[in-house]
Amino acid sequence: MNNEIEREFKTVRILGGGQFKIDLDTVKEINQIDNEMVSLLQNNENNETVKKEFDEKIRKIYDKINEKGIKIEFKEITASDIIIPGLDIDLKKARELFKGEGIIDDLY
Length: 108
Prior knowledge:
Blueprint: H1 3-6, E1 9-14, E2 18-23, H2 24-41, H3 48-68, E3 70-71, E4 82-84, H4 91-97
Parallel strand pairs: 1-4
Antiparallel strand pairs: 1-2, 2-3
InterPro entries: PspA-assoc_dom
Domain PspA-associated: 12-106
Organism: Candidatus Nitrosocosmicus franklandianus
């Protein structure tokens, strides 16, 4: 039987970057980065070092999704299980999103 059929996928939307189907292993990988981002932002510092590290981590999430995900055509309308903010997010807005479990539930 086809391995692609047996695997479970989640739909993720990258704001400004489209939608992708990703498998649960990839969800777990980006959830780990998400948890690191929550820890990074808990200190409430607003300096360039924090912003740079945050930007590197969100870029890492984008790269993983683009590398391992299956792009969904724009003409297909699909509800998203996970929404990733755009690269232009500031630290104030990021702190609103990346708290608690972050943007990805730890259930995945």
